[in-house]
Specification:
The structure is a single chain. This protein has 470 residues and is of the alpha/beta class. Helix content is 45%, strand content 16%. The strands form 4 sheets. A 6-stranded mixed β-sheet has the order 3-4-14-9-10-13, sandwiched between helices. A 5-stranded parallel β-sheet has the order 8-5-6-7-15, sandwiched between helices. Strand 5, helix 6 and strand 6 form a beta-alpha-beta unit. The longest helix has 18 residues. About 1% of the residues have low confidence.
């Protein structure tokens, strides 16, 4: 397996180098040079298999010969051993033909745990394979988060040797429990900073750090956001397990995905590209609807980010949309690079009609209002007895608002966070306060420690440099 940049200029690399680099040297995102494809009987064989076994199989197809199958199986078993549900990502039925895929049974109660726990162990494996250190020195991970990625990264990397973790979150734009999963770590290898801006500011700063090659080399910089191809690979897994549980591959399925940075939705596209019979993907956004607008109108245009009750989706630059553009443009790196450099400069991109048409073969974009989100929370509680968080509710409402699909095709809604992470919004919509899981109770009373930074790349560089190079 080899990996190429969506912008076509960076040299191709192997899986471990793509994992450790995070972002390609030309500013693009890594994609497999050739996507692994599973035959129908290989997919069918996942039925009844433990989640870790399916994860090891799927990840092995991305890793190629760089990680031995036995090592990958052990790594995955360890990653998911601490999840609170034996199925790891169980399905719950909401109504005839509609299901909820629960992705919140990890240590920080969000879907990010499913990939991040594996990612941390992949880093450990890479370190051991290179004489005890990644690229000879400790690695500095800088993570920009809209709420859940940061907590998942802290849970996965805190205390691990050879790794320094810096988390940037938008101050005042995440829930208290989301923040506490980041700010209550007592480990010396973790620093957390509140940035005076929105998530797009945090993400732009992260990309600026990578763009400064001398700085990135000096601190041995990498990233664990969904720009990292290993995150996408790990997130493909639950698409396969959910689909097989409902009769795939003989039976096609559909998914509704709450989306901000488009990583989870792109993982669904990737699973389809790998042979999973996904009939359609509904990409549901909140008021920060850059993805929904792009899919519906063919114009990918940034607007100011708005604060909503689904803060992990308060994003107006969806990094993984570049991967979709690249694939739908016939893997034309030069065209993709020109398009997204233009978008970075001007904030708008007209998607060529032929590229847009290919996107629409799989995706439908739907924007969901705050009122529709609240009603979805209330209706799901009233009709199915299930409490759902606001992000999941965006996908539920998006499924209701999308064009009618094939009634015989099961629709799976990705439930990306536990409702207890957003108790005020859930209680306001239903009158019911979600029970606090043990993982949330554990951080509720701990002392928080974090710094405050301006939304300025140079200030963040100085902060990271002081931590990485004391």
């Amino acid at each position: 397996m080899r990996y190429i940049s969506t912008r076509g200029e960076a040299p191709e690399v192997g899986f471990i180098d793509a994992l450790l680099a995070g972002l390609a040297a030309d500013g693009g995102l890594y994609a497999p040079k050739a996507w692994p494809v599973l035959a129908a009987d290989e997919i069918a064989a996942f039925a009844g298999a433990p989640y870790a076994a399916v994860a090891a199989d799927i990840l092995g197809r991305f890793a190629g010969e760089e990680i031995a199958p036995a090592a990958l199986r052990a790594l995955c078993e360890e990653a998911y051993a601490g999840f609170s549900h034996p199925a790891v990502a169980p399905l719950a039925q909401l109504a005839p033909g509609r299901y909820l895929l629960e992705l919140f049974h990890g240590p920080t109660l969000a879907f990010k745990d499913l990939a991040m726990q594996v990612l941390a162990r992949l880093y450990d494996h890479a370190r051991k394979g290179r004489g005890g250190a990644v690229r000879g020195e400790a690695t500095t991970i800088v993570c920009a988060t809209s709420g859940d990625t940061g907590g998942a990264a802290v849970a996965a990397f805190a205390g691990r040797p050879g790794v320094r973790l810096v988390v940037l979150f938008p101050e005042g734009r995440i829930s208290a429990i989301q923040r506490r999963f980041m700010t209550t770590s007592a480990h010396d290898n973790v620093r957390v900073a509140a940035v005076a801006g929105d998530f797009d500011d945090c993400q732009a700063i992260l990309k600026a750090l990578f763009a400064d090659a001398p700085f990135a080399a000096a601190v041995n910089l990498t990233a664990v956001n969904s720009i990292n191809i290993a995150r996408i690979a790990a997130q493909c897994v639950y698409y396969f397990t959910a689909a097989v549980a409902l009769g795939a591959p003989p039976r096609a399925v559909a998914f509704a995905v709450p989306t901000g940075n488009f990583g989870d939705a792109f993982a669904g596209w990737a699973a389809r590209r790998m042979g999973l019979p996904i009939e359609r993907l509904i990409a549901a956004t909140n008021a920060n609807d850059i993805v929904a607008r792009a899919l519906e109108t063919g114009v990918y245009a940034r607007r100011p980010a708005r604060a909503t009750h689904s803060p992990a989706m308060d994003i107006q630059v969806a990094s993984n949309f570049e991967r979709l553009y690249f694939e739908c443009a016939g893997r034309d790196g030069a065209a993709t690079g020109a398009a997204f450099r233009g978008f970075a400069a001007g904030g708008s991109l007209d998607i060529p009609p032929a590229v847009h048409a290919v996107m629409r073969e799989t995706f439908e974009g739907v924007s969901v209002s705050e009122a529709q989100t609240a009603e979805a929370i209330a209706a799901t509680w009233r009709q199915a007895g299930e409490l759902i968080d606001p992000h999941t509710a965006v996908a539920v409402a998006g499924a209701d608002l999308a064009s009618p699909g094939n009634e015989a095709t099961p629709l799976i809604v990705l439930s990306t966070a536990h409702p207890a992470k957003f108790p005020q919004a859930v209680a306001a919509a239903t009158g019911a306060v979600p029970a606090l899981p043990a993982a949330a109770r554990a951080v509720a009373d701990r002392v928080e420690t974090f710094d405050r930074l301006p939304a300025d790349a140079e200030a963040v560089k100085a902060y990271v440099r002081a931590f990485a190079l004391p």
